[in-house]
Amino acid sequence: xxxSHPCDPFKRxxxxxxxxxxxxxxxxAETTTTLDLEAVxxxxxxxxxxxxxRWRHALLVLPTVRSWMSSAKTNDGLVTNLIRDGVVEQxxxxxxxxxxxxxxxxxxxxxPAFGRDGIDDRTxxxxxxxPIGPRATISAPHMHGRxxxxxxxPLLAKAQSKVLDVGSGSGYLTAAFAxxxxxxxxxxxxxxxxxxxxxxxxxxxxxxxxxxxxRIKFERRDGWTGLPDHGPYDAxxxxxxxxxxxxxxxxxxxxxxxxxxxxxxxxxxQALVQVDRDLSGTLSQKTLFG
Length: 290
Fold this sequence. Notes:
Elements: E1 12-15, E2 32-35, H1 51-61, H2 75-84, H3 93-100, H4 103-107, H5 121-124, E3 130-133, E4 136-138, H6 141-156, E5 161-166, H7 172-179, E6 184-190, H8 193-203, H9 208-212, E7 216-220, E8 233-238, H10 247-251, E9 253-263, E10 271-277, E11 283-289
Parallel strand pairs: 5-6, 5-8, 6-7, 8-9
Antiparallel strand pairs: 1-2, 3-4, 9-10, 10-11
Helix pairs in contact: 3-7
C-alpha cells in the first residue's frame, strides 16, 4: 500500500455506501467499518440500508463521530489548526481562501433535521464530513485543504486559469478554487439538481457571489463527461470515485494541468490519484495514497 496522508495519522470510520457516487471522505452512517488509512478512505461490504434510513441515522449519530485533529470552534480556528497540522501552508493562497469562506454557510445549508437555525458551531467546524443531503456530504476540512494545496500550483502558474470541480455538492470547494486568485474561473458540476441549486444559494451568502462575479458557475450534468464547452482546465478535482479515470476528463485537462481523482471499484479499495499533463501533452499519474 502507499504512504498514509501526512495529516491522517489515525484510523477512522467509513460508511460503505455501495455506490460509485460515494465521496472520498467518511460519513456517519448505519453500516461502518474501521479501516487503516493506508487502505485509503474507502470501503466496501455488507447490506446497504435504504438511503433514507441511513440519512436519518447519520443525523442522529453525527455529533458522536470521531473527528480529525484540526477541529475548532470557529472558522478561523479551523484554518489555524489546518496550518498547525501541516495540511495548509501558512500565508499562502489556500489559507486566504479558506479564511474568506465560512464553512458553516455550506455545511449547514441543508438538513432541516438540524433545526431551523442550521447546525451548531461544533459540527460546522469539526474536521469531519457533514451530510448535506440523503446521498451527499461536504467533505472533511483536511481533505479540502489537501486537494486545494495540490491543485493550487497549476492554477496560480498562469494569469488566467480554469478549474473544474466534478461533484461540486455544496459549492464550498468550487468557491475556494475561485478565491485562490483573481484570474481563476471555477466551474462546478453535479448530477443532482437540488445540490446545484444549493451551491448557487450558498455562494450568494456573505457577498461571496458579488465578490466572485462570473468567475464561478454551476451546472447540472453527468460529471464523468466533464464540461467541454469551457475547457480545457488547468485543474480538475473529482469528488466521487471512478472505476477508471474517464477519458472525457483526461481530454479536458490542459497542458501543464493536474487532476486529483479517487479511483476504485464500487466494492473495492480506492486510491487517490494525481494525473499531470506536461507541456508536451504527455500524461503521467501517481498514487498519492491508497
